[in-house]
Amino acid sequence: MTFYFHKEAETEFLEAIEYYESCTPGLGEDFFLEVNSTIQNILSYSSAWPIVEDDVHRCLTSRFPYGVLYSIEPDCIYILAVMHLHRHPDYWKSRL
Fold first, then answer.
1. Please, is 86 exposed, middle or buried when counting C-beta atoms within 10 Å of its C-beta (0-12, 13-18, 19+)?
2. Cβ(58)–Cβ(52) under 8 Å?
3. CA 42 to chain CA centroid, nearest Å
């Protein structure tokens, strides 16, 4: 199975990478690898994580305070948000 980012989800992911890299060199790459590992877990076990809204699941990263919100489509995983857990929790709902 493959995955696709909602345009805004991809933007927030890239912005978070840049932010972490600006804090500490190499931390942006660590964040990138952590989110990619989380996405690989989602691809392997897409139904394993709880549904938070309608058919949207949330899988938490291990090292950073982020969750990947996604829906399971017939032929792919659609990533709606790479969400900081301390941000307003409903900001991504307009992407449904």
1. exposed
2. yes
3. 10
**CA 52 and chain centroid, separation:** 14
Each residue's pLDDT tens digit in the chain (96 positions)?
A: 899 999 999 999 999 999 999 999 999 999 999 999 999 999 999 999 999 999 999 999 999 999 999 999 999 999 999 999 998 878 788 787
- Using alpha carbons, select from 81, 87, 74 the residue that is nearest to residue 57: 81
For domain 2-85, which architecture applies? Answer: 2-Layer Sandwich (3.30)
